[in-house]
Amino acid sequence: MYAYNDFDEAFVRTRVAQFRGQVERRIDGSLTEDEFKPLRLMNGLYLQLHAYMLRVAVPYGTLNPAQMRQLAYIADRWDKGYGHFTTRQNIQYNWPKLDDVPDMLEALADVEMHALQTSGNTIRNVTADHFAGASADEIEDPRPVAELLRQWSTDHPEFQFLPRKFKIAVSGAKHDRAVTKAHDIGVRMVHNDAGEAGYEIIVGGGLGRTPMVGKVLRAFLPREELLAYCEAIVSVYNLLGRRDNKYKARIKITVHENGLEKMQELVEARFAEIRKGFTGFDQELLQQIERAFAAPAFVSKSTASFEAARLANPAFRSWADTNLAAHKAPGYAIVSISIKKHGQTPGDATSDQMRVMADLAEKYGHSELRISHEQNVILPHVHQADLPAVYAALRAADLATANIGLVSDIIACPGMDYCALATARSIPVAQEIATRFDELKIEHEIGELKIKISGCINACGHHHVGHIGILGLDRAGVENYQITLGGDGTETTTIGTRAGPGFSADDIVPAIERLVTGYLDLRQDAGETFLQAYRRLGMEPFKAILYPAEDKANAA
Amino acid sequence: MPRNFTPKVITANALIAGDAVWFTADNTWSPRISEAELITDEAHADLRLLEAQAHQHEIAGAYLADAKEGANGPEPTHFREAFRTRGPSNYAHGKQVEL
Ligand code: SF4
Q1: Are the Cβ atoms of B57 and A27 closer than 8 angstroms?
Q2: For an interface test with B, which of A24, A49, A344 has the most B Cβ atoms less than 10 Å from its Cβ?
Q3: What is A6-109's CATH number?
């Protein structure tokens, strides 16, 4: 893992000290809220419905055990004993007090963490594949590049006042687990025809009010050109992006309004201008960073205990079949820890659970943890021989839910239970759907199904790319939930299509139940997933299931 | 024709704790909406909002929110404002347990 050098350390400490002074001046009345707000946002501090909210960056979702333990300590000492993992691989605290926040930031700095650029119109926390460095289908670990981009974008003087926020995601594998096509810039590692590794650069993707699938700006970019090229993109956007209208300010609109070709021309021109300024230091730095991300020393030992446990314990087998993914090292597995126990708040972990996960990472996981954008925690490197012990410890901590990728593994944003921008709640809908399908005991039969819920059009819950997306709205002062179908957030990114009129808070869970049980009747066989069935059959049969009364009315 | 003015309360977040507070008739901030001043006149509302916003050292982000007269004082009319009087629905946190 990357470790701070003296520069990083001094920079983060200075920013904490500056913010401490700003908070003091706000409290003693020297700063008004209007003056203070941009300062607190630069440090990840929001003011929400019931309290402040501190959003802490987890760069590319990677944590070590000491950091996870510190997150638990912060939750206990200054919050309510839990944290919320988000779709940007960050963690949010929902109850900090303004005068405690500088101490919280200091505590973060103690473990090389911060809350910088987790808000505001800057380049945000760079996200990456949560299976980075571990997955069997990987070309290269994307984290060194993500770290390079993080260093470049942190406090970049040209990019502190962009037209709007700017999000970058990096994937190093064939299978896109980083939703790169729904980011302002998506970086995908690819090979060209000559077999050289480089990047496919995707631009102008995004969800929110105007969802758009990112477009390929450059099909193959040599590795050493990455920073200069990204700088060219953001630089062009900084000038061209619209500052007159917040809803048209993201780069997706810039690309849409100007066309991909114009963007290509401008970016290439700017790139030609600035590339000589990149004299190779970035590549030296990248090499240092790469060394920090060297693969752990994988061991080889017998996997007999794993096989024996699978045969002996059906609960373990179910968990192993659902929550493990293929690892590149022989004998190893990637463990996804579900933070989605049925009926719980998606993405919320208690401080005790954080400590258990930190201990497991230390004891069995080469001291690595990841946060996934699907709001789960990953132990990327666990030897199969250790899985029974890991499972037992997870079970004791209420963390052994076997539902990764299933109907109850729901992404849900905080919605109107916390978020000041929300138009409806999302957490209770997620809780009720998960509880209902647990009662029905059919989620393993249903198979892969991604439900994603957002509490407003900003789409933090990625509802547009959910196989089933749910968007909470305020319709004449009442919560109302719109369903979209057929969304996909992988390398075949697709924006879901709205199924029809929305449902009330009372009707949304029965509607989802109808939809999913209806799919079981529609699918060709147990191997056809919900998304595949939808792609084969189109909207109509699903619509008929969702709106049965309307069907009759039309027939009459 | 001017649209009808619906009754309002002034609400904000407390500066340090960040929780929801309401502006009372005696210029204090209460954690209970029932103690808020219910404002029925538009000109008075604008004036009171200015006065409320001057309390920068106690609150942040004051605004006017729709409310109605209830048995024990003002009550919210919109679900968002109702949530602010209670706290989140997923945990027993916030005003539902603190007041
Ligand atoms: S989608 Fe809307 S409600 Fe949900 S967290 Fe984002 S801004 Fe808040």
Answers
A1: yes
A2: A49
A3: 3.90.480.20
